[in-house]
Amino acid sequence: MEEIFSQRARGGRKNKHKTAIYIFRGYDGVSAGKIFGTIPYLLLNIPVGNEYYVSSRYAFNTMTPYEFAADRYVGLHTKLSLGGALFDKIPFLQQLGWRETISFNAYWGDMTQENKDYNRKSNFNQIGSTPFMEAAIGIDNIFHMISIDYYRRFTHLNNPYAKDYGIYIGLHLSF
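User: That's the sequence. What structure does it adopt?
Assistant: Structure tokens below.
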């Protein structure tokens, strides 16, 4: 449990706590958590959005930064490398060593009524009962360090500034 916010009120002290679990292995991971207490919008859980066209494995690439906020949440990041299952059957592409990838990311979050009331003047969206979901197909191992992914957003398409899709470039250096 982590203390994320404290304030003095009426001679006393109010503490706000966050309990979270993160399980990541390679590109795949699950995160979940709960924030106890009433706190300002920017201290709630805000999933990492991406405003650039450079892919990030720990961000939701078609989500804009600060688009959603929650005090109870679950997130999922997956990436599957097909290891050349298609490209190895095409002679020219086999020589290049390119690899196909498939990704899926999801986020669901909710907010207690106390936090909704406290942050009523803030500009953020609620996830609601439908989780945020995006998926991608891509090509990896271009020049042994570059990837290109096509991301498609499936839910919350009516949000202002929402990106329905995008082509993202990644750089992977491994030694």
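The two ends are 36 Å apart (CA to CA).
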